[in-house]
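__Record contents__

***
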Amino acid sequence: MIAELLLALVPIAVLIALGAWLRHSQFLADSFWAQAERLGYYVLLPALFLHGLSTAKLDNVPVQGMITALVFSTLTVAALLLGARRFLGADDPAFTSVFQGGVRFNNYVGVSAVAGLFGAQGIALAAVANAAIVPTVNILCVLVFARYGAGGRMSAAKVARQLALNPLVLACFGGILLQALHLGLPVGIEPAIKALGMASLPLGLLCVGAALELGAMRSWVRPVAYSSVFKFLLMPVVTLVACRIAGLDGKAAIAALVFQALPTASSSYIMARQLGGDAPLMAGIIASQTLLAGVALPLAVMVLTPWI
């Protein structure tokens, strides 16, 4: 189990390091990165969510139990983060990064790890986990940016407009609708959507690496620590409790636990850049959590699995 989890983290660390080298060596012009971030946010990430949610194979999976446990744990930790905001010593844009670090998860690691643990059944379990958490965290993050982003507090009408027009939220609900209607994606279009979605993962991680400001590492310590406590400690524990409440056990519960103990996603940086968060801090949290996950993720799974 530990080997599968660690192997899923290695490509992420490599791509972040490559992105840092590409930026600091000036191999690519600085103007490239802003356009790459825009492409990821408006095209590639929506394609990833749309394809993943619309084509998920959900046979023989306890869908209701997994969704209940995952949504409950996500909402609970999000509420705890909001309640702790005044004690974190971070300004509003920085808080959006801590929040994302505490609730978002890296799809790539999750799918790779669970598929490595459980084979084809693991892919189905990962699909349900994505269907439950992806729309939940995207809506929560949009709401947090609307309140604490650099643009200041938005009115209710602007928040509603932000949600209604957010490409990630739209892609999530589009994928869920296609799944619910058993439509999937058109045969001729599905491979193109899949290819675009797959491109979002490496490009997003390269952008994270490019945004790293190593000279600011000292200022990351407290935000990284806060977000990591919520992500690697509170989230797995709350998920375990939620699984017990929902009557979820076995492989499905282990998959839920793995997904809720993952490092935060590269899409967190793209979202921070586009919606007025503290993007450099977000890049630091992503890189730091990816390294910390090498210890925290296996430890959380090993310690908590016997209680499932």
